[in-house]
Design brief:
The protein is an alpha+beta fold and 362 residues long. The chain has two domains: 4-139 and 244-358, no CATH class; 146-235, no CATH class. It has nine helices and six strands, in the order ααααββββββααααα. A six-stranded antiparallel beta sheet has the order 1-2-3-4-5-6, with no helix packed on it. It is elongated and about 100 Å long. It starts with a helix and ends with a helix.
């Protein structure tokens, strides 16, 4: 049964956690959204998969962001309580550090479980789904992903078309097409055009309406001009190799059974974030301690530097592990020890043992 202190700490931490997580997601997902819009404008991505990619991006980065958001939420909650003398009042009532740790234990265990599922299951599945979408976008030439006002190339250069405008119903206005058939280049102009997919064969066509086709070289006897009401040009799709799974897209079970150094590095990278929740929860209590009415933002900034260092060391350690700079037995676990060592001076300075030595009479 939760006590009043437990409910208060959990409620304040949860509110901070949701706010910080929302800000971090907004920054990262917003950056991904802008990149996808640029790819849509360049014609390399269809606009109907943007929301799918954003959802997958949220699932992919949530497991990485959640430990950081939880760490900062504990720091902010306890820092505010120290500033407002609430921690002093709790200490006068006999509620010490271990009791506060026990309150946070109720939230640490669910957070560890959520982060473990996100990094071990959700993240590789999202990476695989993103790779599959990119593969499909590259394999299928889609006129709907083309950009207006620029020349778009398909079918290995055999089809080049230009549309002055792309209407909301995905129809093209004032279309110019250069098409190669049987080694001969033909030019087509049309008032309108749209894409058509044969449901039986899966073949894709550009259907042009009310236009002219010019074929041959001017001045030659076989030069022809043909007027049409409707004309279809088939888009030849490239044959691509089957998609190959990289380490970041493979399941955790397959990585566990693999002896490859890249697979082992990826597995340890995924396991690092659930362990990071434990490490940062341990250092959050001494890191948040401050005098009453003292500002908390200085330590929040230092905490951000520590987490930034942790995240970059984790990426660097994986590269060192793959390149053989660090031994395989060391792996990436030493990064968590480095974080504890970075926080050790502050933890020791704020410990009761050091405080007793300071106040010991000489």
């Amino acid at each position: 049964m939760f006590s009043i202190i437990d409910r208060y700490l959990l409620r304040e931490t949860l509110k901070c956690l949701l706010a910080i997580l929302a800000v971090l997601l907004l920054i990262l997902v917003g950056h991904a959204f802008v990149n996808n819009l640029q790819r849509v404008a360049a014609g390399s991505l269809a606009n109907d998969v943007i929301l799918t990619l954003l959802g997958l991006e949220v699932l992919r980065v949530l497991g990485v962001l959640l430990p950081a958001a939880f760490f900062f939420s504990i720091l902010y909650t306890l820092g505010r309580m120290y500033r407002d003398s609430e921690m002093t009042a709790l200490a006068s009532c006999g509620i010490g550090t271990l009791r506060i740790y026990r309150s946070f234990l109720y939230s640490v265990l669910p957070i560890i479980a959520i982060v473990a599922w996100l990094t071990l299951v959700g993240r590789p599945w999202a990476n695989q789904a993103i790779e599959a979408i990119k593969y499909e976008q590259e394999a299928v030439a889609s006129i709907t992903s083309a950009a207006a006002g620029r020349f778009n190339e398909f079918s290995r250069g055999d089809l080049v078309f230009f549309a002055e405008d792309l209407l909301l119903d995905k129809r093209m206005h004032n279309v110019f097409v250069q098409n190669r058939q049987h080694g001969e280049i033909g030019l087509i102009t049309a008032d309108e055009g749209y894409q058509y997919v044969d449901q039986k064969t899966g073949d894709r066509f550009v259907v042009l309406i009310n236009g002219y086709r010019y074929e041959g070289l001017p001045g030659r006897p076989d030069y022809s001009i043909t007027e049409f009401g409707k004309y279809a040009v088939r888009i030849i799709q490239e044959t691509k190799q089957p998609i190959s799974l990289r380490s970041k897209t493979r399941s955790t079970a397959s990585l566990w059974a693999s002896d490859g150094i890249k697979d082992r590095a990826e597995l340890q990278y995924r396991l690092a974030f659930p362990l990071a929740v434990v490490v940062f929860t341990l250092i959050s209590m001494p890191w948040s301690r401050s005098a009453p009415r003292q500002g908390i933002y200085g330590r929040m900034f230092l905490a951000f530097l520590i987490y930034f260092t942790f995240f970059n060391l984790l990426s660097v350690s994986g590269t060192w592990m793959k390149n053989g700079i660090t031994p395989a037995w060391m792996g990436q676990w030493w990064v968590h020890l480095v974080v504890l060592c970075m926080a050790a001076p502050l933890m020791l300075r704020d410990s009761r043992w050091i405080a007793s030595l300071r106040h010991r009479p000489g």
